[in-house]
Design goal:
heterodimer, A: Alpha-Beta Plaits, 7-stranded mixed sheet, 5-stranded parallel sheet, 23% strand, B: 3-stranded parallel sheet, 10 helices
Chain lengths: 1141, 193
Amino acid sequence: MRKKIGTAMVVGAGISGIRSALDLAEFGYSVTLVDKAPNIGGILSQLDYQFPNDRCGMCKMLPLVNRDSSSQYCLRKGLFHENINIMLGTRLTNIEGEPGKFKVILKQKPSSVDPDLCTGCGECARVCPVLVPDSFNMGLSERKAIYLPVPHNIPNTYTIDFSSCTRCGECVSACPTGAVKLPEEKRKNFNILVVDDELIVRDSLKEWLEDEGFSVEMADSGQTALDMLKQNTYHLMLTDIKMPGMDGVELLKEAKKDLPELPVVMMTAYATVETAIEAMKQGALDYLLKPFDPETFTPKVLEIYQTLEVVQEIELGVNAIIVSTGTEYFDPLQSNNTFGYGRYPDVVTSREFERLLSGTGPENGLLQRQSDKKPLKKIAWFQCVGSRDIQTNADFCSSICCMHAIKEARLVKEKLGHNIETTIFYMDMRAFGKSFHQYKNQAQNEYDVCFSRSRVHSVTENKELGGLMVQYVDQKGTRNEEQFDMVVLSIGQRPSSGTKELARITELPLNKWGFCESEPFSTSLSSKEGIFFGGSFAGLKDISESVIGSSSAALSASRFIHSIGGSLSSETDEEIELKDVSRQMPSVLIVVCTCGKPQIEGVEQEQLKTNLLRDPAVNDIVFIENTCTALGLSNLKEVLEKSNANRMLIGACLPHVYTGKVNQLCKGTGFHPQAVNVVDIYSQDALKAKDEGGQSLESIIEQKLKMGFAHLKRMDPPLAPIASSIQKALVVGGGIAGMTASLAVADHGFKVDLVESQDQLGGNLFWLKSTIEGNDIKELFEKTVKKIENHPLVKVHTQAEITCSFGSVGNFHTSAHSKKEDKPLSFEHGVAILATGGKEALTTSYGYGTSKAIVTQKEFALNLDDGSINPASLESVVMIQCVESREQDKKNYCSRVCCATALKNALLLKEKNPQVGIYVLYRDMMTTGFLESYYTRARKEDVIFIQYDVENKPEITKDGETIKITAFEPILGKNIEISADLLILATGLAPDFSDAMAGNFGVRKDEFGFFQEAESKWRPVDSLKEGIFSCGICNSPRNITESIATAEAAAQRALRILGDNKILAGSIVAQVHPSLCSLCERCIEACPYDARYIHHENTHVAVNPIMCQGCGSCAVVCPNSASALAGFIDQQLFDVIDSAF
Amino acid sequence: MTFAVRAGLKKFNIEHNFEVKNIYEYYAKWIREGKLKPNSDWNKELGIKFTCQDPCQIVRKSYGDEIAKDFRYAIKAVVGEENFVDMSPNFSNNYCCGGGGGFLQSGFKEERLEYGRIKDRQIKETKADYVIAGCHNCHAQIHELSKHYEGNYPVIHFWTILALSLGVLGPNERTYLGDDLMEVNVFHPETAM
């Protein structure tokens, strides 16, 4: 394993935090991943399906080289990487020190359930008498007070929710391993002082608090309280505000003089809330609203108690911090709620709907009408609930909801049948990302999802038929009323609840909607050195943009740590050499865990032992109690050390729990992890089989053990192949993406060759002046080029064309031809980053080319710049969006940048000439995220927006110098004619990514000519061929900032490989028996990773172990069993099958 | 003060040293504090049913459900809890009377009455005898709806019925009352003093 050269902390363990952590860990940093929740995964733990394939696929983010460093296990369930330390139930409370040498203070809630002892058997939850709404299912189902936060997590330790726990102690006595401990004693030592002038309030509070186990004392006035504070120690003071004599606020001030650390909570009636808030500014911790009832009061105090007392403070030194705490969702109850959310059970939010659709959801995925549990026929989605809505302070687009709604509508059709009617009510359908538009078209054409551009007014109950009546106004202005069985509110994003606190701790400013915003031209740089933003924390992003953004954050953090020399380095343990047992006779030690229920007793154990020992390959069979606990493991280690066995079989309950534990055990003993097999002998089906089939438990256990044994018997634990790797990168394309990627790699100390076909670096930055936000592109261009030119490790080759490339990850050989010097160039490199860019597309539509007054957006920018367009002389300007875009056979994708460019140009014209009339003819305004506010501004500045459909496009006629545009105005319901002095066409972006380029590097192009990524959500900048990455416009249409983010992400992905001079493959890789291979090449076709090739002697097919991911597809298609997967050879599997019957 | 002033202050961020409040909040407050002492006994035997309109500008667009609650609290104190019938949907979810947004003054009478059909239907569904309109604009529109769709329910302002219950409603302030209330004079001990 690599030496760790620095430490980073990632706050927030959602998909973004996981991506950043994995990226940094793979490069060799030690990472602490922190989340306040008791589980990792964030919002995604609740989402079962992601478009475009409507599956999960999160596991595709796991390491592809050095695979054994992380367990290859469902990432949604758990993350196990040797360089990542996960701390759950933990909050960041303070940052001290300076950038590069941060001292962070974390507060971790110790769990009352010991994770080392908890086996997740669920006995505690079975006996728990408390039922509360389950937040995992958005409150649609119920859970116990002791529960699993995410039912599918691994390892899955039960958690106690103290705000609902009655502390009856049932779980403590039910736990078979003694893992549950209630913090009774601690509460008794927690002294609370209650100050109130009313006796009845004091008495009832005392009673409630003592019921919860706290020690309570009372004071009837401020003065008494002060006296008492001097005499005794109190851990919390609750004080009324309105009291005769010294009031609560005064008491607070006085108390804080002597005891500045004393937590004080104000109690107040509704009328004096403002006073309470004022008191918080003077140091009060919180306030509680009167009148009290125990149901609301007790949980609040418990919450305060949890944050104050129970938490454990941890101090950590880290070099860099990545904040990726994500976003939260808008609560419709916080608005006027004209859709009746919370009032009508059939109105649900998109997140609730996601749970209702899920097989692990409250209704097992059997979607039905919530009000009367009748079957559903019609479902409606309302877009922009809490987005693009000034009334709820959301002058932004949440960017994710359109695709979310389309996905849900398609899923409904797939799961419940195509006869279910689905309608999406929307303003603009923002299918702006790569492949989004196709996905939407499919939904419309193949799935019959109805898209209704209209404004929903309200929802009422349908008293006769059940379900709901939706009142809406369509584009013509007609009022409609339609019956639906269910309404799904596509709720928008909001800053996560901890953002304010994080902003305070990090001293970072918030924008007017409460988000932290990143620096210009970056999605990850904060205004503070050493602190970076990952994922949607600093903006509104979907999964793939979050993944890109968090890789970019990892890059920024890594670059920063590298620049300061990674001072907080920690050395890793000496590597222990694994015993090579592949040539030894199998001698298997069988370990049976005895904690299962029902247990097997002495006689049955003896019987089992006799039966199993009949096979001479069985070394011994031992019984250990609670094998997975710390004690059990140390017992196991002892047994193992004494034994002369060379393979080990463990029969226990949950095999996945053992992944990390087995690795640890092996590290200590030199035992090969692949020589250990864990089988589930106590699973549900084992017990079920017993009930139904009448088979005895020991015979089931015996059968399962025999299957595991059969697999292990012929196991030749392979040693992971190692290949050397060239620590140099090749970057193709010298636009902003290519330059950024080159600098990012070179700043880590690796050599970079940057190949550009033009005579100068810069690409589209040549003609762009400033962004819509007003950021100076020229300055960025000059600064970046200068950095490239001055960088000692970047070698620029202009006027050079790639001629061919071959090789695999770690070892590529590429040739190019330099036109400048007219000579061939050749490069040896470990990775390649393709950033060949793209251009404004050409067009012949709308009379382009027939008049000087008809220009593209780029030409407009250039003409404005050189003065050939004078804004003051213009009276009327028309812009047409989506020219030859998003149409069948015509760039059937959204170019993403044109709407923002149109707004930028419109606002620029209005600024120079407020009198000019501007008409924007658009199909859907794609102003996602914070760009929406510019759309709002443009409308306020009288830019007229006219929506058109692709079936009814605007028409152009020329009348001398003036151009007449005829378009259908949907609100007026008639054709209108606009005379324009200038017509600006948004022709979109086309990639500059030739077939030859793709062919040379062995990567694919998508149907529109862009780089085909390995996976649109989880691996957006990788190709399926490991070692080749892409960024910028040749990857997908994007603006400068987004291109830079992809470039940084691609660089970060590349650095994982460049970081070492050797590449470690996984232990489980495919092999070929040359003598059996008939060279039919079926396996080469089947391999999704391009890991197979014909051996240079043309005798057999060979495998590149580094590229092989151990999927086994080749072994399946091979007609001769020449292809096999190490550890899963035919004999093993046949043996397993044989012993199953 | 009108809604426009409130909205304008907010929209243009105009600095001001006063708060914009609605009278219904104060009616409710004064009644709770005992400063206003309306009596609903007059309606005990009559049993005249009232419903109310939630004006967009006051409820949905400004103060939300809280003010609608206050409004109902005040109405119930005046007409008696049992004599109030709510329309559906209500509070922030109530529909516009159809005369809002300047519609009442803009012409397009036919369209305006067509939009008002929903309001009229809501009112008729409550089977209430009277509608209390919380805003002058709503009053004019609903008054017209009552005639146009022949529901012929009287539409009154809140203060009319408040004044009636306090025994201070003058004879020339009864234009909008129906015949059943035209002659009702409440004896109020404090007013009589």
